[in-house]
Amino acid sequence: MDYKYIEQLVERYWQCDTSLEEEAILKAFFSQANVPEHLMPYKSLFAGEKMLQEAKLDESFDAQVLERIQEDETVKAKRVSITRRLMPFYKAAASIAIILTLGNAAQSSFRPAEAVENDYNYENYKDSYDDPEMAYDQISDALQMVSQSLSEASKQDSLLREQVGNQPKGQ
Amino acid sequence: MKKISFRNDVLPLKDKLYRMALRITFDTAEAEDIVQDTLIKVWDKREEWPQLASIEAYCMTICRNLSLDRREKKEAQHIALDENLHNRPDVSTPYDKMAASDSIRILGELLKGLPQTQQDIVQLREIEGKSYKEIATVLNLSEEQVKVYLFRARQRIKQRYKEIQGYGL
Amino acid sequence: MRRVLCLLCYIACLIPSAWGQDFATKFMEQCGEKDKMECQTVSPKMMEKVMDILADPDKNEDEEVQEYLLSKLKSARIITADRHAEKLFRKAESLIEKNKNRFSPLAEDSAGDHNRIFVRRHDDVVRELVMLQLSPGKDLLTIVDLTGEMDEKFMKLLSSGELKDD
Fold first, then answer.
1. pTM of the entire structure?
2. Quick check: C23 and C128 in contact, CB under 8 A?
3. Which residues of C touch A125 (CB under 8 A)?
4. Contact (CB, 8 A) for C106 and C119
5. Does A171 sit within 8 Å of C104, measured CB to CB?
6. CATH architecture of C33-159
7. A108-147 confidence digits (pLDDT tens)
8. A97 interaction partners in chain C (CB closer than 8 Å)
9. Contact indicator for B157, B73 with CB cutoff of 8 Å
10. Ranges of chain C whose pLDDT falls below 70
11. Which domains does chain B have, with CATH numbers?
12. CB contact under 8 A, A20 and B36
């Protein structure tokens, strides 16, 4: 092959004067084994392009992608149907929630705070003792302390005696 | 506009996308991964397909961004690990001793500094062998613009060759 | 849609639980210094067990008093804090102050600064009794919180000061 021609092609390539066919010739030329020394630097460009041109994914790739997409599809389909199926349930839950909320709001606004019944939520109580004896000691201590401070206070304060004595009409 | 089908319109782009990913990452396994992710991503956005000017350009953009991300991550790792600059491809290495994949690596390095559009045009022209007209359609540019960009890109590549071995020639 | 639902359910659950808290729970929650305090709890279930062991046919008079007192209780909680006691005491006070239509003061020491007792009454019985006690000099805070149906007799027995120390 005439190197003059190739050199000329390279020059025209830089000027964007080459056709696609001529560029194909360049790639083919630089992809062969013996490229003259002075044109060697451009080998990486054209040979690299040629190699890239030939790079391809194989058939198994398609199958992989399609499989992933199908998975995605079925998951989505399922999700939609579950949401739809549970729609009546959601509606019911919503109405219950609304009723509860309104009920609670009404309850709390209609009756005075003092009149709330013994409504302590004992569910959250975590016992500190497993042994009733220990618990008994604990309660005794507590009662003892309350009793002590009550009696001390009542010694100082006769008003308290009255208050404890005749139950709570005045408060 | 005709309806886009994944199997007929998107999946056949895989090789083009693969070559683009390969150009940017120089790694066949990674490139394959990227193309798969790209296609899945495009599939997830299928509601938006009808509004797209070109599904091909759209796929290319996604693929390019994914590739650039991966390359950045990889480069960051490399530098952090051992700064093995001497292992990096060097354009002035004797070519006959080069492994085949190094050509792709060097091509990638050559194109790396170019503006994105120019890189895409080189890719479409030189690797996909597309005419100016086809490139213009895909990238939504005029044919004139494509020519101008390609000219600039080739000048830049030539310039880089000169920089690398200016004293040798 | 789902988020709105969740919110509604949450509100619905929240309201009853907000009402169903005793002072000790509220205080522990609001105070945010749980690690500095210790809370001993006797739940209604444990209280029943305690009553079982007290059901001794030949008990003396003292035990009878104890049994009566305990039978009127549903739960007992004791919070102790041995650091920042003064600060926590004031916090507890202000929490009661904030809920003053729930709690009314029953007794306090003459200065009113280290021992106070509050009660919550309903249907003529004390439903909840809260005692705040600051042990001066020891940096020790004790809060006793009793719930149950503490009637007149209960309160009299308690304030008589005749409770046996055992």
1. 0.44
2. yes
3. 41, 43-44, 75
4. yes
5. yes
6. 2-Layer Sandwich (3.30)
7. 665 544 444 556 777 778 888 888 888 888 888 888 888 8
8. 5, 8-9, 11-12
9. no
10. 1-6, 8-20, 32-35, 56-60, 110-112, 161-166
11. 1-88 (1.10.1740.10)
12. no
